[in-house]
Amino acid sequence: MKKLLYRLLYSLKHDGRDWTVFSLSLLLAFSIWLIHNLSLNYSDFLTIRMVAECDNLEGHMVSSSNSCEVVARCRTSGYNIIKSKIALNRTPVRIRFDVQSLAHRSGEMYYITRTQLNEAAHLIYGEKVNVEYFLSDTLFFRFPYETSKRVPVFPVASIDFEPQYMTTDNLEIEPDSVTIYGEPYHLANVDRVFTETIKLQHLKSGAAGVSRLEKIKGVRFSESEVHYSIDVFRYVEIPSEVYIYTANVPKDKEMMVYPSKAEVVFKCVFPLVSDVSQTSFYIDYNDYIASRSRKCIPKPADLPEGVLGYEMIPEIFECVLTEK
């Protein structure tokens, strides 16, 4: 026995061969054997978790709220068998059925039989699996009742501009509202939906694009994304000194404004299309009466064409009302 062991160890070192070569040879042989055996077909019971979907169940959600296990005797490669067993605890497969395939039991409950499973076998297990027979007989799925309502879309945006550029409008989106669907208790507190954050940096020209809507658990949308656009203008700043007038003051009263004039910086479209030096500002008597502090913000009488905005110093003015 000792002589046999000695000869074996000696042969491994013959012509430079050693234990490393021997180990690699065994590993290679085992790999070839494993690949060969996994490529052969075997029969085994495969279990798949499945969620049913149907587009035409009026008043019900598209997807079932529960999943069911489908068990079938299948013939396929060893690789597919191992893959199926590993995938059992992962996300269930979603199989779409037409409304005729789903039998109504009561209320929210629908079911499918072995006949429908046979028809959908290639979708459940894949084209490379031959289903011999199903152990699963009848599977029950709950399609919850759902309602719908129309809600506005609010854009969430982070926007900045190059110096001397600005916009006169908010970010425009299309569509500006969507229909949402879901169980009543899911929709009860949803009165708007939001876009994903739209980041527009260093703008000096108009921009447009597409933004997805933020998902809400248990709620689906008629649209998954919206188009947005924004107009950007180059502007110049024109300073001017203006007087503050009053308007709609009763004939038996007199209203004084302090201070009586202000510095205004107009932001105008470049190149200039109008003269802003004659723009007047006023404080309305009715605004004064409605103000608890007796302080008011002047309004422009008529902004010339091409004025994108303005800044006034000071912004708020004190008013004093007296009898004539």
Average per-residue pLDDT, rounded, comes to 84
Strand content: 35-45%
In total, the number of domains comes to: 3
Number of helical runs?
A: 7
Principal-axes geometry comes out as elongated
| Sequence stretches where pLDDT stays below 50 over 5 or more residues | none
**Total strands:** 25
Class by SSE composition: alpha+beta
Rg is: 38 Å
Q: Would you write up a description of this structure?
A:
The structure is a single chain. This protein is an alpha+beta fold and 324 residues long. The chain folds into three domains: 39-142, no CATH class; 147-231, YbbR-like domain (RNA Polymerase Alpha Subunit, Chain A, domain 2); 234-323, RNA Polymerase Alpha Subunit, Chain A, domain 2, CATH 2.170.120.30. The chain is built from seven helices and 25 strands. The strands form seven sheets. Strands 10, 18, 20, 21, 23 and 24 form a six-stranded mixed sheet that branches. The chain is elongated. The mean pLDDT is 84.
